[in-house]
Automatic annotation (TrEMBL):
PANTHER family: ALANINE RACEMASE (PTHR30146:SF155), LACI-RELATED TRANSCRIPTIONAL REPRESSOR (PTHR30146). Coiled coil: none annotated. Gene3D superfamilies: 3.40.50.2300, lambda repressor-like DNA-binding domains. PROSITE patterns: HTH_LACI_1, HTH_LACI_2. SUPFAM superfamilies: lambda repressor-like DNA-binding domains, Periplasmic binding protein-like I. This is LacI family transcriptional regulator. Keywords: DNA-binding, Transcription, Transcription regulation. One of its GO terms (molecular function) is DNA-binding transcription factor activity. It comes from the Bacteria. Pfam families: LacI, Peripla_BP_3. Residues 17-71 form the HTH lacI-type domain.
Length: 354
């Protein structure tokens, strides 16, 4: 055994092996060990190999705290995610469960961890990010639910904190790397499909109007409806909950010129829409066509099964996580949208009754 090695009982004092033990065995400074074990420049190849050999001989394993403080480096770091949603609602939202599982799939590959917080507003979210970065609790963060003129964008850019925005790059002002789907193209595809079936009155149950993707979808819906000569579509805002989706559906179906087709911004609201249609004595799709967004398992459990804009949300979360590690590790970041949601027709859409 080399000089300074400890054997199975741990470090020289019989406790947990530390980075100082590795430095002593390799006969280098603690700083050199930190650089070598985190894959950073600043030490020669021979020194790096000597340090790694010493760490292996001692059985050194980085602590969770050390990994979170290590910053850039393969297999290191904690990723932050803050969501401005009530905990109860988030637990019912298939999108975020799939999105987080996609992020976790990449973190598992790197032995990294996710630090998740739920907050009441964007100001509190900014405070959380500042605290995380000041104490180096995270290597970088993911931003979701981007708004137009979002105050989080300049705040994180000013911190110098590595971050990736899950949203259209037009919402970031070029200050943060963005990963996005082409919502405009997706909306155009579903409206053209409904128009081809013969629908002329199309409505939408949307999300929070302050959110960037909600605004993008609203503008795209109006533009393609005008282009196709359809009646001006009506979009009602909601908080994405099933209760709000049901309320909006009742309002649309109680109007004098009720729509013959409704597009929903998530699956929960579309499922609620089927229930409301049955409550009002309408048959889906004979009297009303419904189309959901995201295409979770919920869409295949309803009767009839919901037509949906199918979106690989798990893959989207994984792409966001991989992009964040590219930013943290200062690698070239691929530019371009994630795959556009694809329409999957099922039993809830058909030509309108005459």
């Amino acid at each position: 055994m080399r000089r300074g090695a400890t054997g199975p009982e741990g470090g020289p004092t019989g406790g947990r092996v530390t980075i100082r033990d590795v430095a002593a065995l390799a006969e280098v400074s603690v700083g050199a060990v930190s650089l070598a074990l985190n894959g950073r420049p600043g030490v020669s190849g021979a020194t790096r190999e000597r340090i790694r050999a010493a760490a292996e001989e001692l059985g050194w394993v980085p602590s969770a705290v050390a990994r979170s403080l290590a910053g850039p480096g393969p297999g290191s770091g904690t990723v932050g995610l803050v969501i401005t949603r009530p905990a109860r609602q988030l637990g019912l939202e298939p999108f975020y469960m799939e999105f987080i599982s996609g992020i976790e799939s990449v973190l598992e590959e790197r032995s990294a961890t996710l630090l998740l917080r739920l907050v009441r507003d964007r100001e509190q979210e900014i405070a959380v990010h500042r605290g995380w970065w000041r104490t180096r609790r995270v290597s970088g963060s993911v931003l979701v639910d981007l708004a137009e003129a979002d105050p989080r964008i300049p705040a994180l850019a000013a911190l110098g904190m590595p971050a990736v925005a899950a949203g259209h790059p037009g919402l970031t002002g070029g200050e943060l790397t963005a990963v996005w789907t082409d919502d405009s193209a997706a909306v155009e595809a579903v409206v053209r499909y409904l128009a081809m079936l013969g629908h002329r009155r199309i409505a939408r149950v949307g999300g929070d109007p302050e959110l960037g993707h909600t605004a993008i979808r609203t503008r795209a819906l109006a533009a393609v409806a005008a282009q196709l000569g359809l009646e001006p579509p009506r979009s009602l805002p909601t908080d994405f909950s099933g209760r709000a989706g049901a309320r909006a559906t009742r309002m649309l179906l109680a109007s004098p010129n009720r729509p013959t087709a409704i597009i929903y911004d998530n699956d929960i609201m579309a499922v609620a829409g089927i229930s409301v249609a049955a409550e009002l004595g309408l048959q889906v799709p004979a009297d009303l066509s419904l189309i959901a967004w995201d295409d979770s398992q919920l869409c295949r459990l309803t009767h009839p099964a919901l037509s949906a804009m199918s979106h690989d949300v798990h893959g989207y979360g994984a792409l966001v996580a991989r992009t964040l590690f590219d930013v943290v590790e200062r690698r070239a970041v691929p530019v371009g949208p994630a795959p556009t949601p694809v329409l999957v027709p099922r039993g809830s859409s058909a030509p309108p009754a005459h």
